[in-house]
Structure formats: C-alpha cells, structure tokens
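Design a sequence for this backbone.
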C-alpha cells in the first residue's frame, strides 16, 4: 500500500501532498503578506525579527545564507539587511507564485540592503546546491508544509558547511493554560473567516490551521533535528509556545 501522510486533518498518499500544498500557496500568494499581518495582529514581524537576530551574518567576510521555503522573502530581506555587501542570500521556494511576489518586493526594497540576492525555484527535499556551501540555513513557517521533513533536514545538513547553523521558525504547541483554549478557538473559528472575507476563500486557511495543529510539539521536533545529525539541537518558545525557534549546528 502507498505510504500515507496528512494534509491538514485529512489523510492522503504521501506523493499527493506537495501538489495540494502548492495549490494552497498559489491561491494565497497575492494576499499572503496582508493575511500574515491580519491573522497574527502583526506578531509575525516580531517573531521574524527575533528569529533573524539569531543568524548574525558576518560583516567582515563572505557569508552565504540559504532561506528555504522563503516565499515572499520576509526572512531573507531581514538577513540581507543585517548583512553587508559580502552577504549573499538565496531565497528558495517550490512555488513560482510566492517567488514572484518575493521578486516584486525585492525590486521595491533594493535600496534597503547591499547584499546580493537570488531566487531559486526548487524543493527543500532536493536542494540544487553543492555539499558544504552555506554558512547558515533558515526555514520560516515552511517545514510543516514539506511532505518528507526528514529528507529536508538531511538536505539542510548536507548543504551547510562545518560550523554552519540551522534555524527553523515554526508554529508549535501552546503550553500556557487558558491561552491554549483561546488560541485554538481563534485558529479554527476566526482565521478561516478572515480568509473568506479578505482573500475570498476560507479553505486554504483551514489547511494552514489544521497543519499547525498536526505539527509535532517542540520537544519531538527537536528530537528530529538531533536525529538528522545536528549538534546542540535546542529550541526557544515564543508567545507562550504559539511559535518556536529550533536550532542546531553542523559540527
Ligand atoms: C507559510 S509560507 C512561509 C513563507 C516565508 N518563509 C515566511 O515566513 O513568510 C510556506 C512556504 O513554503 C513553501 N513550500 C512548501 N513546500 C515546499 C517544499 N517542499 N520546498 C520548498 N518550499 C516549499 C510554500 O510554497 C510557501 O511559500
């Protein structure tokens, strides 16, 4: 029997998941940034600032950064701003519509940073780069959409140089009483409605909410990162565990 996985709460063959995920992000691409602000009340900007604060690109020597599932470029722009003319940022995403939004924003933001910028359409599970070629790897709100997470983690480790850092920002498990109930009610009742009113379709947002609920808790995901061979795997919860930053080193 074909291997199965989840798409939100429904089950489907593993080989069908990516196409369903791609359809979601094709649909939401033009409203993605606006919806992020509306759904998180702007909090995603703070989470991303804290996350990118961990990257610390060297300003004195060449620094190659890979932002996977980079979408419209929110994480990558922040890394580029923190870097110098010696910084090279590659934004990789499987979805042409999301990358197109990113390219449009990069043209508009060109004067904000001196770093070199490149966009690559590819799969996190099969990175089109040589071994040991990046100083840091980020993936923000992307890993839960990837069908074979273990493959993506192995690829992340392969393309990082020794001493390189892996960083993942993802929704996690709220571990604060009362906040967990409020968060669940908000996610399932309010977000799909905002999606319907603003983007004209609540279904993609139901997938986003369900995929968050199904994603492993912070401890289990940390175990996966260590299992992929990263050293000093650890995590930090933000906003009561609504999101978590996971990190590890290739040593
Ligand atoms: C929620 S968005 C996150 C975008 C951006 N990192 C941010 O934080 O705003 C998730 C992104 O993951 C991308 N994605 C999904 N599966 C992928 C895969 N297998 N490889 C690369 N990107 C993927 C989607 O196309 C989408 O752009």
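Sequence:
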């Amino acid at each position: 029997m074909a291997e199965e996985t989840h798409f939100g709460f429904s089950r489907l063959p593993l080989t069908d998941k990516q196409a369903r995920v791609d359809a979601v992000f094709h649909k939401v691409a033009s409203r993605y940034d606006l919806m992020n602000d509306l759904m998180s009340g702007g909090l995603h900007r703070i989470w991303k600032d804290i996350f990118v604060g961990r990257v610390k690109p060297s300003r004195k020597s060449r620094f190659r950064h890979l932002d996977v599932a980079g979408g419209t470029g929110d994480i990558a722009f922040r890394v580029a701003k923190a870097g110098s003319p010696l910084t090279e940022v590659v934004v990789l995403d499987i979805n042409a519509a999301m990358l197109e939004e990113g390219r449009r924003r990069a043209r508009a933001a060109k004067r904000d940073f001196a770093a070199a910028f490149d966009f690559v359409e590819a799969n996190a599970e099969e990175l089109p780069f040589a071994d040991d070629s990046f100083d840091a790897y980020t993936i923000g709100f992307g890993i839960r959409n990837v069908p074979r997470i273990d493959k993506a983690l192995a690829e992340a480790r392969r393309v990082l140089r020794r001493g390189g850092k892996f960083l993942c920002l993802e929704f996690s498990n709220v571990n604060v009483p009362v906040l967990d109930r409020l968060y669940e009610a908000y996610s399932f009742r309010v977000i799909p409605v905002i999606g319907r009113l603003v983007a004209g379709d609540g279904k993609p947002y139901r997938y986003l909410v369900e995929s968050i609920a199904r994603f492993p808790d912070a401890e289990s995901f940390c175990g996966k990162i260590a299992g992929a061979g990263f050293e000093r795997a650890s995590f930090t919860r933000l906003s009561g565990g609504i999101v978590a930053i996971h990190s590890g080193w290739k040593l």
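The mean pLDDT is 95.
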